[in-house]
Design a protein that fits this description.
Blueprint (H helix, E strand, L loop, with lengths): L3 H10 L4 E5 L2 E4 H18 L6 E2 L2 E2 L2 E6 L6 H8 L4 E5 L6 H11 L3 E6 L2 E6 L2 E5 L18 E6 L9 E5 H15 L16 H12 L4
Parallel strand pairs: 5-6, 5-7, 6-10
Antiparallel strand pairs: 1-2, 3-4, 7-8, 8-9, 10-11
Helix pairs in contact: 1-2, 2-3
């Protein structure tokens, strides 16, 4: 994903620094990196790379995230957009029938949903529950190719079902570098972003802050 390198670098240098806070829940950079790496391993178990051939291209694993604003969302997003993965964000606030049609059109390799404080990951081969207490990972979160898709977001769907928009890593990497300098975002920054993380604006606010090492 566009911030894999930044999150890992912050986890190495400042593991106890605050990365993401929602309600009473807090993730440090060390915790975020560890959880994302462990989640990445679960995705590989549920959908091995050799068997992944999603609708966005060969050898690409499409991961639908339907968690809403969940304490483990940034770890899920980091894992679901690292390496060959591409994250598709679905707002759980949409009508169930709409979400079903969106998932049918996407045909994701793995779907991640909220299960109380945990996450439930489902694929055609099995289901795994993931929590903050899940085992540590021996894998370091891999970066993905800049030209490859890493994100599918959707239009608001005011006149019909939401339509997908695919973004590649390079486009966000360039925007993040430019925006950090323009807005003065750095490791001392704290960004408050009300709104659904499944939508582009809140998601980008989270991403640009984490990429800069802020909270």
């Amino acid at each position: 994903m566009p911030l894999t390198h930044a999150v890992l670098a912050q986890a190495d240098a400042r593991p106890d620094a605050a990365a993401f806070r929602i309600g009473p829940g807090l993730l440090t950079y060390g915790q975020l990196a560890a959880l994302a790496s462990a989640l990445f391993e679960v995705l590989e178990r549920l959908s091995p790379a050799a068997a992944s051939a999603s609708r966005i291209g060969a050898a690409a694993r499409l991961v639908a995230i339907e968690t809403g604003n969940h304490p483990l969302f940034p770890a899920a997003f980091a894992a679901a957009s690292a390496g060959i993965n591409c994250a598709a964000l679905i707002d759980p606030g949409l009508p169930q029938a709409t979400r079903r049609r969106m998932l049918a059109a996407l045909a994701p390799d793995v779907t991640i949903r909220a299960e109380d404080d945990d996450l439930l990951l489902q694929s055609g081969t099995g289901t795994e529950r993931f929590s903050r207490a899940s085992g540590a990972s021996g894998t370091r979160l891999p970066e993905g190719d800049g030209a490859a898709p890493f994100l599918v977001v959707f239009t608001s769907g005011t006149t019909a079902d939401p339509k997908p928009i695919i973004r590649d890593r390079r486009s966000w990497r360039q925007s993040l570098v430019t925006g950090a300098g323009f807005f003065g975002i750095d490791a001392a920054s704290t960004t408050f972003s009300p709104g659904p993380l499944a939508h582009g604006l809140a998601l980008y606010a989270m991403t640009e802050t984490l990429a800069a090492g802020g909270e």
